[in-house]
Design a protein that fits this description.
0% strand, rod-shaped, 2 domains, 231 residues
Length: 231
Amino acid sequence: MGIFSRMGDIINSNLNAMIDKAENPEKIARLIIQEMEDTLVEVRTSAASNIAEKKELKRKAEAYEERAAEWGAKAELALTKDREDLARGAVSAKQQALQMAEVVRSEIDILDEAVGKADADLAKLQAKLDEAKAKHKALMMRGTTAKNQIKMRTHMTTNKVDDALARYERMERKVDELEAHVEAFDLGSGQSLESQFAALEADEAVEEELAALKATLKKPASKPAKKVASK
């Protein structure tokens, strides 16, 4: 089973369980990201193990090939000494060593293919993980915005704002009443500045009129003209 198929099965099973429980979308997104991160770690661990095994197999293949070369040299030596029986045994041992080296080389090829696929899968999974994280961040921002809007509209649709404004108006009325009491204390305690100036202006007008009247009375009365006596 492929890495992505197995990961998809895990995510789908957990997702279905969470949806059945009506979990919130942010939790589902975090679960998906967590599953992808866990799979990424698992794939990297597996790839590292394959690379280590590949190095071990490469050393074994080289050892078998060195042994085959040694048996070849021994076969040649046996023939130079007219020991065909020993040469035949050496050639057989050489062939067995080469066969083992070939088997190990085929295992290395399989591991090479596995490592190559793991590398491609890791690149795809990392890209998907980055995309999922970006979407999760955007989802969280949208969720936070929506929650704030709901909170604000809830406050606006309740009586809290109206109550606060009503309390503010009542406070204003109390301040007005206090100011009225202060002004009431000044009533009857004397003329205000404005009333004093008004009184001065009224007095001045009276004095002017009185002076004019006096001046009129002081003027001498005109004498009547003398009549001429008729003859």
